[in-house]
Structures are given as structure tokens and as C-alpha cells.
Amino acid sequence: MTRLAICPGSFDPITFGHLDIIQRGAKIFDEVIVAVFNNQAKSPLFSVQERIALIKESTKHIPNVSVDSNDGLLIDYAEEKNAQVILRGLRAVSDFEYEMQITAMNRKLDSKIETLFMMTNNQYSFLSSSIVKEVAKYKADVTDLVPVVVAEALKEKYQSK
């Protein structure tokens, strides 16, 4: 049986923190699907299609990673893909309470799908897409926070605004 994990997120944009979790997950699972979901509480800078393209470019060196998107419930998507695991990254204790609530709801909806939390590398524990967008908006260099393709896309977005 193929060990399949879904790594969900809004990825607006993908950061080195996200990539850290994806790369480490790809060593554990036979296949990892990076699934772009729209967070209703956020207004995204990049469209879903732009985010997918940036993630594909940023993960092309990892052969067992694919990229997809979904508009529904994560647990329904995981069932549809026959995933055994939802892979989530934790940066700090502040992430835990929110993630615990989501995990409890997912378990209530389908107890067969496990959630695996992975602590991000310490060098990325402060990193979020929101912080990256904030500093990029003011033309700061973000190449040590995101892949080059993402840094270029951010620069382009903010030049056109």
C-alpha cells in the first residue's frame, strides 16, 4: 500500500518553512500531495493557479511530490485521494491550539485519517507567508525566506500594485 500524505495550506506564497516540511515529509511518505486551499479568513495575493505554479517550480526537485488544489473540506479531499495522513507543520506553541481544533474536527469526520505534526526547522520558526508579503511589499530582500521564483513573483506583484 502506498503511504500517501496530504500537506494542505494556503501557501500564499510558499516559503522555505513550507518547503522544509514538504521535503521532510517526502522522506517519510511514498507520495506527498501539496494541496492548495483557500483560507476564507484571508484575501490572497496570488491566485490559486499562481500558487500552484510557484509550488510546482519550488518542489520540482522532489520526485514524490505533486501539487493540487481543492475548494472543499480537507478531510473529504483526503478521503477522495485515499490518503492515510494529513501532514501539518508547527512553528511555535501559538500554532498548536488552532491545529488541535482542526485535527479534532477532522478526526470526528473521519477517524481513519491521522494528522501528523512536524516541527519546522528552528531557522524558519518565525516565518510565515504574511511576514514574507509584508517585507516584500516594502521591497526588502526575501531571497533567504522563499525560493527565487517566489521572490521574483512577489517583486512583480508589488511593482504592479
From TrEMBL:
The keyword Nucleotidyltransferase applies. Keywords: ATP-binding, Coenzyme A biosynthesis, Cytoplasm, Magnesium, Nucleotide-binding, Nucleotidyltransferase, Transferase. The record marks 18 as: Transition state stabilizer. ATP binds at residues 10-11, 18, 89-91, 99, 124-130. InterPro entries: Cyt_trans-like (IPR004821), PPAT (IPR001980), Rossmann-like_a/b/a_fold (IPR014729). One of its GO terms (molecular function) is pantetheine-phosphate adenylyltransferase activity. Belongs to the bacterial CoaD family. PANTHER family: PHOSPHOPANTETHEINE ADENYLYLTRANSFERASE (PTHR21342). It comes from the Bacteria. Its cofactor is Mg(2+). Homohexamer. It comes from Ornithinibacillus bavariensis. It catalyses: (R)-4'-phosphopantetheine + ATP + H(+) = 3'-dephospho-CoA + diphosphate. It is found in: Cytoplasm. This is Phosphopantetheine adenylyltransferase.
